[in-house]
Amino acid sequence: QKEVEQDPGPLSVPEGAIVSLNCTYSNSAFQYFMWYRQYSRKGPELLMYTYSSGNKEDGRFTAQVDKSSKYISLFIRDSQPSDSATYLCAMTNSGAGSYQLTFGKGTKLSVIP
Amino acid sequence: GAGVSQSPRYKVAKRGQDVALRCDPISGHVSLFWYQQALGQGPEFLTYFQNEAQLDKSGLPSDRFFAERPEGSVSTLKIQRTQQEDSAVYLCASSLVTSSYNEQFFGPGTRLTVL
């Protein structure tokens, strides 16, 4: 079993839909939780990060972390065709020294006009 | 300002050849990471530098993989005697400091294909 599990999809939704993406993890030492977006043939770019449990909102994006369940989510409201990409969850633990990221497999999202 | 750049963007190698992949981090970034991303997978950590010191190489899959950052800026990932299983996108990321969490900025990657 991998440390971070993420359903690879693909996920196809109509424009304007609410999208829910999620990951589960097994390492209780993870403290920082991130969502990256990766377009085809590009490097990942950070969308949001959250420290420990809680919610964080940024425009149409909301990130949630439930450390008790080892479960993180990303919600996208009013999805747009430009949101079509692969979404990667990533996490790291504090005090590790290197802050290397452990990624999920990524979920490929298509938003259909 | 300029982001992380990597070269070459694409590399085709015959099995058994040696390859060298270059990463130019964002100027002033102390930390540099290399990740390997196989097709349909998330990136996996290979190695980490703080300035010129390689502090973690626990993710390097074999002794055929070698990385350096001699002057604390540009880094090179070298793969000797390439194998087909080495085919992947190699991503470089840099971040400002390591005293706490800092965003890692990724380059576009080098896509390596071993025939």
Structure commentary:
The complex is a heterodimer of chains A (113) and B (115). Chain A has 113 residues and is mainly beta. Helix content of chain A is 0%, strand content 57%. Chain A is built from no helices and eleven strands. In chain A, the strands form two sheets. In chain A, strands 2, 4, 5, 9, 10 and 11 form a six-stranded mixed beta sheet that branches. The relative contact order of chain A is 0.34. The mean pLDDT of chain B is 94. With 115 residues, chain B is mainly beta.
Task: Provide a short characterization of the protein structure.
The complex is a heterodimer of chains A (113) and B (115). By secondary structure, chain A is mainly beta. Chain A has strands at 4-6, 11-14, 19-25, 30-38, 45-51, 54-58, 61-66, 71-76, 85-93, 102-103, 107-112.
Order of helices and strands of chain B: EEEEEEEEEEE
Tally of alpha and pi helices of chain A: 0
Computed CA radius of gyration of chain A, to the nearest angstrom: 14 Å
User: What is the H/E order of chain A?
Assistant: EEEEEEEEEEE
Question: Any idea what the shape of chain B is?
Answer: globular
Distance between the termini of chain B: 37 Å
SSE blueprint:
The complex is a heterodimer of chains A (113) and B (115).
Chain A: E1 4-6, E2 11-14, E3 19-25, E4 30-38, E5 45-51, E6 54-58, E7 61-66, E8 71-76, E9 85-93, E10 102-103, E11 107-112
Chain B: E1 5-7, E2 10-13, E3 19-24, E4 31-37, E5 44-50, E6 53-56, E7 65-68, E8 75-79, E9 88-95, E10 105-106, E11 110-114
Parallel strand pairs in B: 2-11
Antiparallel strand pairs in B: 1-3, 3-8, 4-5, 4-9, 5-6, 7-8, 9-10, 9-11
